[in-house]
Description:
The structure holds 2 protein chains of 2 kinds. By secondary structure, chain A is of the alpha/beta class. Chain A contains 11 helices and 13 strands. In chain A, helix 3 crosses helix 4. Chain B is an all-alpha fold. Helix content of chain B is 69%, strand content 1%. Chain B has a two-stranded antiparallel sheet with strand order 1-2. In chain B, a hairpin with a 5-residue loop joins strand 1 (145-146) and strand 2 (152-153). Chain B is globular and about 60 Å long. The interface between A and B is medium-sized, with 37 and 30 residues.
Amino acid sequence: MSAPDGALPAAVDAEMPPVRLDGGEVDGGEPPPVRARGLVKRYKEVLAVDHVDLNVRSGDVYGFLGPNGAGKTTTLRMALGLIKPTEGIVELFGRDPMRHGARALEGVAGFVEAPRFYPYLTGRKNLELLAALDGGGAGRSSIGNRIDEVLEVVELAPRAKHRVGGYSHGMRQRLGIAAALLRRPRLLILDEPATGLDPAGMRDMRELIRRLAGEGITVLLSSHQLPEVQELCDRVAIVDKGRVVYEGALSDLRRQGGAGYRLRTSDNQRALALAGAQPGIEEAAAVDGYVRLQADESHVGELSLTLGREGIAILTLTPELATLEDLFFSLTEETPTTPPAARPPAARQEGAA
Amino acid sequence: MTLTAYRWELRKLISQKRTYLGLGLVIVLPLFFVIFQNVHQRHDRGQDNIFAAQITQSGLATPVLMLLFLSVFMLPLAAALVAGDIVAAEDGNGTLKTILTRSANRGQIFAAKALAAVTYATIAVFLSAAVATVAGVISWGFHHVTTYSGTVVSAPEGLLLVFAANAVYLIPLLTVAGIGVLLSTTTHNSAAAVVGTIGFVILLFIVAGIPGLEGAKPYLLTEQFENWHGLLRTPTDWAPIWHSLWVCALYAVPALFAGYLVFLRRDVAGG
């Protein structure tokens, strides 16, 4: 049964050292919502998940990003106890679903791939059954109210008495979130929640996730949709061919991709020459009527003063951060063949930020 | 929690059409039988079965005859319809992952499903018996009845024997349900599990008819379908009932244990 809001789960597994809120290991403290170490899933010759480490901290909207077939869903299935890891361990609030069974899912809800329901029952009846399975049969009126509440949250109340068999894909996705919210989760695991939705449905789904995160629910969001992750997530793990190729803050990743500036002046040729001579400007190049600079903010500031002194007017100066898309492709299309532990820190920011 | 899961499984069963298909069969057949008998009003019913001979003399002969008739195929079919579907339907709907990420452990879910399948088979047997008894008594009265050994028993005692005979018949029928649950768990396919369960019953009937295999007959599950006859003799012949009990245990316990282990260990990668 779901723990009441704010309730803490039982003791940390003796085999696992206690962890710091940032995913590191220290003495005491609440275990993190998700912590995976060396997670492996092998299907005969196929290595679906290859030594994955994850650290989802309380309050994160954590993006689990990767191309189709990268091992995201398999990892989430292991996290929810649906499939058994070949190696490694995953804990939810300090509990391993393989060892603690349903108790490991206290305070946890969500779905992997498309949420599935009994098609011959109405949306509401499905929720009633799931509430009953969670032990919510006792206080019928309070459960009824809770069902009304979650149906309102996902805007499905008007269709609640219709059979799920007649629901659109988007309505089923929203019913999946309603079913998850019934448990009053502290951790919401969502696997590709916006996949298959039309643009309006995607916008509504993002808005819903943002709202739930705003209410303090930790969200682990698996997706291959970069704009969705960029818009919603503060921390990410990028997975490719079963391996985590980056884990850490999204902002760190983008900074790591290189902070750049686009400069347009009244005399780009002289500006380029001055930029090249200016200390701290790492790179300067003329590109399509602009001067592209690689430098940190303070050095760009000094360059702007120099340009002013030289009588060169600055027409535009805009920061140019690497997009998640750029970074994603650079990470997933040139995956190193060395094991994760052997990779340079730049490509592996575990517990960063 | 197992009780919660069991109640949940029953609620789900109640909302499925398939549930009523099997129950409908075991209700309609006794009714048809009684209506047919009333229309034809034959008093010289076959002499091969003592209860058939007294069909119009006591309404209590009807449930015994119906048990004789339904126990071979229809009741096993009704049990298989639900038992074979009970886990596989979750695979078919993709809902196994939905229920396994709630508050019940796998073991509890499996126990609830096995119990629900058993409950359904039990309801099917007693519902059929109740319909046959009521229809028989309305048509031919609540009178004394003569048992296999020629002993005349009073109507209340006869009613008790009808109840006991159905209860004893549950031993092999619940075994069939257990095999259905195993196939439902291992095949992940409702149709395959239902057909497989019934196919297994038919296979055993065929084996029983093969010359030279008479020695195996007492250990075939299908031979236990007649274990209740011992109750309708005076004195009661308990030997076939005890025999049936351990033979059925040899089928049911490994089937349920194997189903439990498969359910506990399987990767739920679909849906």
